[in-house]
Write a structure and sequence with these properties.
Multidrug-efflux Transporter 1 Regulator Bmrr, Chain A; Arc Repressor Mutant, subunit A; 8-stranded antiparallel beta sheet; alpha+beta; 18% strand
Length: 302
């Protein structure tokens, strides 16, 4: 036990973080014990004892890459071992690794190893293993959220797709262009109460270029504007939230999300509700310096 952990609350947080790491490591062990298996997200979440809705965020925060990327890399490493140590056909190895065609397998394999599967098979030697993410990331940020009860919110939103390097900035700009055109057409500017962003898709199920970003406005209760083909409505349930204030570029928001799930959650004593977290944008992007933009990250808790 670390001798510098003298404060009881600090010790409790440290033990909670160790518990989270233990639970994530159980999932990692399952992945490496049988890389060719295809366990469902719900199964792995159950092993770790986390809600399926939040599990992928916790895994990514602790391991340093999304669960889907991690499992794909494990399968490719197992495939490399099979190429060197077995006589299985490349097509058979590709299918076991989750690729429908040898061409798709070769593309992914070359991206990871910088050599093709046939080159590995012909030489009979394993290339240098790629660097693995650091699963022992230390706590780095002290985070003190505001615990707040939020009312039920009816949100009008537009959707765009595409996450690039954990960043939805491009998709968000596209979605807000659609939403703002709707607001202008219906003269709704004076009635906007909140500006929100929601990312509803699980990155371990949906490819990055297909992941949705929902740009939303909440209007005053007296307003009931029409929906259209581009504008939908969703209701965010009332409930308790841990709300974190991030100041800075939207392109760095993913760092704050990771810190919440890695540095704050384990020692918080809080339990996550199985509802979507979301962001509230407090400033007008067109009128505020990038380093001064304020965003509230809202995490549903019990």
């Amino acid at each position: 036990m670390n001798s510098h952990l003298r404060d009881p609350s600090e010790l409790a947080a440290h033990l909670s973080e160790l518990d989270y790491r233990y639970r994530i490591n159980k999932v990692i062990a399952i992945i490496w014990e049988n890389p060719d298996a295809q366990p469902a997200l719900q199964e792995l979440a159950a092993v770790a004892g986390f809600s399926p809705f939040h599990f992928h965020r916790i895994f990514s925060a602790f391991v340093g890459e999304p669960l889907g990327e991690y499992t794909r890399r494990a399968k490719l490493i197992a495939a490399c071992h099979a190429l060197v140590h077995t006589r299985k056909q490349v097509t058979e190895i590709a299918l076991a690794a989750g690729y429908d065609t040898p061409a798709a397998f070769t593309k992914a394999f070359r991206k990871l190893y910088n050599v093709s599967p046939t080159q590995v098979r012909s030489t009979g030697r394993s290339p240098v293993l790629p660097t693995q993410p650091n699963t022992n990331i230390k706590r780095r940020r002290i985070m003190n959220p505001e615990i707040r009860e939020l009312p039920e919110m009816t949100v009008y939103y537009a959707t765009a797709k595409g996450m690039i390097n954990q960043d939805f900035t491009v998709a968000a700009d596209k979605a807000f262009i659609i939403l703002c055109a709707y607001v202008e057409k219906n003269h709704l500017e004076p009635h906007i109460r909140l500006c929100l962003g929601i990312s509803p898709d699980d990155p371990d199920i949906i490819p990055a270029d297909q992941q949705r970003y929902e740009a939303g406005f909440m209007f005053k209760a007296s307003i009931n504007p029409p929906v259209t083909d581009d504008i939908k409505i969703k209701v965010i349930p009332a409930g308790c939230y841990a709300i974190f204030l991030h100041q800075g570029s939207y392109s760095t928001l993913w760092q704050a999300w990771n810190a919440i799930y890695r540095d704050w959650l384990p020692g918080s004593g809080m339990t996550l509700r199985n509802e979507a977290p979301f962001e509230i944008y407090l400033d007008d992007k067109t009128k505020t310096r990038e380093d001064r933009l304020r965003t509230e990250i809202c995490i549903p808790i019990k």
